[in-house]
Design brief:
two-stranded antiparallel ribbon; globular; alpha+beta; 2 domains; eight-stranded antiparallel beta sheet; about 280 residues
């Protein structure tokens, strides 16, 4: 087990190689166990207890391996703020990758309940969030939602085969050097979207693999190299005024998921063009 800092220095994040216990989770991400909504919520706000949802998902074979919550400026919101859990089903934990359910929620009104699909690469602990290919369940804080939540978990689980099919089709697509650079250029524009400022790094830098297994010309490898370099940061570059710097990791939960999904959809678009 290790504490991670992917979502920013000081952010409460916990990752493990085996299912996390409630005590482990509570010590780092207490907002998951809020027993009531924040006092700022009105009577119309329907409290969706993440801890109860987690308990029900565990009964169905889903286990948490990663949890985090956002940093807060107001200490009274620490136990209610937006949080994320990444869960894997027992039937999905095999091979080099596992399908994941990504659960987002809050108890202070900063987030609706959301469930997404993801793919976890064991080789680099690099969580890939899929685009619009499988279920994306959003539930407002209104009414009784427990049944919808469990049904949504299985909707996402059943969509993993489609994710694997897409992954395999990306592996079958070969990109030449020019096509890889076009992909990287588009990816940079997703990460650095200010047209007035050039990206601090080049296409060649984000295409460099961080491990020998990714040194392949197929679309899946190009996507993974690009995704990991942009999300994890640490690349040497220059700012708009020419100063040396290293690229930052994508720290926020929302920004991480948004960029992850955008890159997945970019890869899917490239796959369709090459089909």
């Amino acid at each position: 087990m290790q504490l991670a800092s992917r979502f920013g220095r000081g952010s409460p994040v916990l990752r493990a190689d085996r299912p996390l216990t409630d005590d482990q989770i509570r010590s780092v991400v207490p907002s998951i166990f809020a027993e009531a909504p924040h006092e700022s919520r009105s009577e119309r706000y329907s409290y969706i207890p993440t801890a109860s949802i987690l308990m029900e998902l565990r009964k169905e074979g889903f286990e948490p391996f990663f949890v985090c919550q956002t940093r807060v400026r107001q200490e009274d919101r620490r136990d209610f703020t937006k949080h994320m859990i990444r869960l894997r089903h027992a039937s999905q934990i095999n091979g080099a990758e596992a399908g994941e359910i990504i659960l987002l929620n809050s108890h202070d009104g900063t987030s609706s309940y959301q469930m997404l699909s993801g793919l976890f690469r064991f080789v680099c602990h690099n969580g890939l969030v899929c685009g619009d290919t499988v279920a994306d369940l959003r539930i407002p804080h209104k009414g009784n939602v427990t049944e919808q939540v469990i049904e949504g978990a299985y909707e996402v689980l059943h969509g993993f085969q489609k994710v694997r099919d897409t992954r395999d089709s990306m592996r079958a697509v070969t990109l030449d050097e020019g096509e890889a650079r076009v992909f990287a250029r588009a990816a940079l524009s997703l990460r650095y979207d200010d047209p007035a400022k050039p990206p601090p790094v080049t296409e060649s830098q984000i295409l460099l693999p961080r491990r020998p297994g990714d040194r392949k010309p197929d679309l899946w490898s190009v996507f993974n190299c690009t995704q990991e370099n942009l999300l994890k940061g640490g690349l040497p570059g220059r700012s708009a005024n020419g100063n040396r710097q290293r690229t930052r990791s994508v720290n926020g939960i929302d920004q991480n998921i948004r960029l992850n999904r955008a890159l997945w959809m970019l890869a899917e678009g490239m796959r369709e063009l090459k089909a």
